[in-house]
Design brief:
By secondary structure, the protein is mostly helical. It contains 13 helices and two strands, in the order αααααββαααααααα. It has a single domain, classed as ABC transporter involved in vitamin B12 uptake, BtuC, CATH 1.10.3470. Strands 1-2 form a two-stranded antiparallel ribbon.
Amino acid sequence: MPSWSELEQFLVSGLALGGVYALSGVGLVVLYRATGVLYLAFGAVGALGAFLAYQMIQASAPGWAAWIVCILIGGVVTLIYGTIFGPALAGRDPLVRAVATLGLTLILFGAMELLWPPTSGATRSISLPTDNGGFTVAGLQVTWTQVIALGAGVVLTIGTGAFLRYTKLGTAMRAMANDREITATLGVPVRRVEAAAWFGCGVLAGFAGLLLADLVQLEPATLTFLVISSLAAALIGQLRSITVTFIAAIVIGVVHDLLTPFTALTNYRDMTPFVLAAIALLWVSRHRQIMTRSREEG
């Protein structure tokens, strides 16, 4: 058993990773509620932005310009996809909308593998200026990048909840989640609302890709499959609750990193999102069965 002092650093890194999963999961939930599409290309779009930023930095471009490109490219690619395919997907079955973005994922993943092949053991990463600063808590060094990653998840969750509740655009998104056709008949510009949802989700994908490329490593597979942990958190929140999605994302990130120092479990830590999502979904299913029986007996 590792000591607590050995676990502390993994707790900090897990919280930062959970923050990235949280902002990703919230983006998935908002887009799903507005369009009914499960955006499985979230990680691949973020990875593409991160690689383009990396290429710009290698070409001596200003770091701030590369970071802006990373974030905006996610929004642009996602908006283009949503503009072209979003209207066609609106009337399709839920299963079709759930897997429709797999094609975009595979295309982007293949392109990145072709343009940025493995580097024979050398690792690529994006270093943000916030890596060089930070503070110490109980003898533990915390970087500003880790603080930003966790803080972004918290701020986005609170801000998104307020946005959906108190703004006209947020109200329109919630209405579309309930009934798209009725919302359109009430005069809501459905296409514009959907475009805003697609673009916002893409911007979050770019931001998540940038943070993850700094916190972990810049590899196509690593960043593309970011969506697995984020999707697990969103499923635990039943693709409705952003608060539950946030909590689930933090738990997934922390558990994933805390398993690292346990030698017997290190190789199985990537199963964390699957296991936690399965447990949560089984519990929800069991709870619903109990509630249904109680109503029938009552």
